[in-house]
Amino acid sequence: LSILLLQVLIFCWDDTVSLMNTDTSQTVYCFCTPPSHAVAPAWQPVFTVDSVNCCLLLRGDEHPHADEFIQSKATHSTIFLFDFNSYPLKEAFPKKPDLPLKPVQELQWIERCNMFLHDRLHFLPERQQVLLEMEKQEYWDCLQAQAAAMDNEREKVKGEKKQ
Asked: Closest Cα to residue 11, out of 154, 3, 33?
């Protein structure tokens, strides 16, 4: 997930979770749990960022009611899912321009080999087409040579029969 490279999650004491763009130091988005739940304590946040599905999973603990708090300190937790694709986050994190490429001479040999293999793989369909055309041409040339040889043989046989 390329947009996650420039951001940081900030857990605050007031049960808010913010997403900040580290390049601009601006808060891009605040993730809020429903009023019935509080984000897990800021000193022990429970969360994960799923880069495959582009989402934030965040634990929220249910606020205990006054009478429940006296009886038991047990709370019920819920996992909240925030789908990054449903927020305008890509606009907040513009893509950085690609760094200029190093000259091939400055690359390590393994990088050079990888580039070579990547190029070979990239042009494989074109090469296969060229080889196929060459094979067709060679086959056609071979057929023409055989036909010419057969014509010559036939002419020889005709010439021998006339004598």
From this structure: 33
